[in-house]
Specification:
about 500 residues; alpha/beta; Lambda Exonuclease, Chain A; Nucleotidyltransferase, domain 5; 3 domains; five-stranded mixed sheet; about 45% helix; about 15% strand; globular
């Protein structure tokens, strides 16, 4: 029987010289799943169909990462892309990678390798002299521990297939880069060597691969209870399967409790809000929710709501900004991920509760900032109080515009001084009904309190999807598709301000 080092040498020889692609059980994605939770790996391998659908927001992130990876290939031109014709045909990529290395290629995109029954694909593989250098491209601004773990697995596999692999770099986005007249890719990306880290992680990677393979071979689902690991580093793809046993009014629906405390309750048998003991030791906000659920009644702090409403003057403007923050700058003088406003909606409420809607939309192509600011100044001058649900972004963007266009500083300051954050009475639980358990977000409260599922049916229904839809407009040639996207974006923004108006009117009614 071969010892471990002899086995690895044997496998390396197969990897380098065999014309037959080695069998593999694990990919990078399945390995990451195994590190997060072996039960997740088991479900992924045996019950793939139970996977939760990919959310629109996550799909946006995946698409962005793919596009950034393709853009980064221009840093190393002249390479060959060995991406498979389908996800089930990675053997094509592995074989093509071998052939290109043997033929003396210097740059390979999506180079694929198999070792120890693990498949990995690398964004860019570059040969300089007699040494190979690995580059993994990320669309984020930071090199995270998860990225280093990914790179460690890739290094483990590739190094054993390609002993002359000399270095490993993670390329991330340099958010300090300011675009000039032209995009400079060498300044857009920041390269971080992680070679020391990935080498240090080799024993850990080997052990985790062995655990993952043993889980697959065992055939029994690991008995792992739900917990904080279900969200780290990402929300598990099988969240819907593992958490579906929890009924309404369970302890995980409590806002501000903290996951650690909720898991503690769960593991000591206190799984329903009504079963929580010693609630007097908890924060006032938690006590409000627990009492409201146990007594099945709404909670109302009238004096605080009255004081809040007294600070608001009519006509009231319910206001919301949509911004896009491209990873790759599109305008001279802007940075990666800089927030650039392109759309706002304004629902005006007169003293008699009559609603009127207005909006501004900047067509994609030109820098929207100045036109956006002038439209804000004009339309917001007609209202006395400006209601925003979660006003942090709006105040920040207006401040940024004041800095870029100082001639309008006084007008912007006037707008900021009139902004009232409507989320405050809800996040402080001055008003709460048990039917709204789970979140104090605008979408959740509007759905529950106003019995309206408009957000759920909108094609664009989040800031992330709005961001990507607007970026799509820059490349879209079909005029009908462009108009469709525009109306979807406006519709989403209008729904935000309508929801804000309805929740404000709810507070007014409750205060009576």
């Amino acid at each position: 029987m071969l010892n471990k080092s002899s086995k690895n040498a044997y496998l390396s020889a197969i990897c380098l010289f065999s014309t037959i692609v080695p069998f593999y059980q694990l990919s990078k994605s399945s390995f990451v799943r195994s590190v997060q939770c072996l039960k997740q790996l088991y479900l992924y391998k045996n019950f793939y169909h139970l996977k939760d659908p990919v959310s629109k927001d996550n799909q946006v992130i995946f698409n962005r990462g793919t596009n950034i990876g393709i853009l980064a290939q221009q840093l190393f031109p002249g390479g060959t892309d060995v991406s498979p014709s389908s996800i089930r045909k990675y053997d094509e990529s592995v074989q093509r990678t071998k052939e290109l290395i043997a033929a003396g290629a210097n740059v390979i995109y999506e180079a694929a390798f198999v070792f120890d029954e693990v498949l990995v694909a690398l964004d860019i593989l570059v040969k300089q002299g007699d040494a190979w250098h690995a580059y993994e491209i990320k669309s984020s601004a930071k090199v995270t521990r998860t990225y280093v773990l990914d790179a460690s697995l890739q290094y483990y596999v590739i190094k054993n297939c390609l002993p002359s692999l000399d270095s490993f770099f993670i390329a991330s986005i340099n958010t300090n880069y300011v675009m000039g007249e032209r995009l400079d890719l060498h300044k857009l990306f920041r390269f971080t060597s992680v070679i020391k880290d990935v080498k240090a992680n080799m024993p850990y990677i080997s052990d985790r691969i062995a655990q993952a393979r043993a889980t697959i071979a065992n055939g029994d689902m690991p008995d792992i209870p739900i917990g904080e690991h279900c969200f780290k580093p990402y929300k598990c793809d099988y969240f819907g399967t593992c958490w579906k046993h929890l009924p309404e009014n369970n302890i995980f629906q409590l806002s501000t409790a903290g996951m650690a405390k909720q898991v503690e309750w769960y593991r000591t048998g206190q799984r329903m809000i009504a079963s929580i003991e010693d609630k007097e030791e908890l924060s006032p906000i938690l006590q409000i929710q627990i009492n409201a659920v146990k007594e099945n009644r709404e909670h109302l702090e009238k004096e605080k709501i009255d004081a809040f409403l007294a600070s608001i003057q009519y006509p009231v403007g319910c206001f919301d900004i949509e911004q896009f923050s491209p990873a790759v700058p599109v305008f001279t003088g802007t940075k990666p991920y800089q927030q650039l406003p392109f759309l706002f909606s304004l629902h005006t409420i007169e003293a008699g509760n009559e609603l009127r809607e207005d909006h501004f939309f900047a067509e994609a192509g030109e820098d929207p900032r100045k036109a956006f600011l002038l439209a804000c100044i004009e339309k917001l001058s007609k209202v006395k109080s400006i209601l925003v649900y979660g006003a942090g972004m709006e105040i920040s963007i207006l401040g940024m515009l004041a800095g870029e266009f100082p001639e309008y500083k006084e007008e912007v300051l006037s707008i900021q001084n009139r902004i009232v954050d409507l989320s405050h009475p809800f996040s402080e639980f001055w008003y709460f009904h048990p039917k709204a358990l789970g979140s104090t977000s605008l979408k959740h409260l509007y759905t529950k309190y106003c019995d309206d599922n408009s957000f759920e049916v909108l094609p664009v229904n989040s800031g992330a999807t709005a961001n990507y839809a607007y970026i799509e407009l820059f490349e879209e040639k079909d005029l009908f598709r462009k108009e469709e996207l525009k109306q979807q974006l406006i519709g989403y923004c209008k729904t935000d301000t309508l929801a804000t108006a309805k929740l404000f009117q709810l507070l007014v009614e409750k205060a009576k």
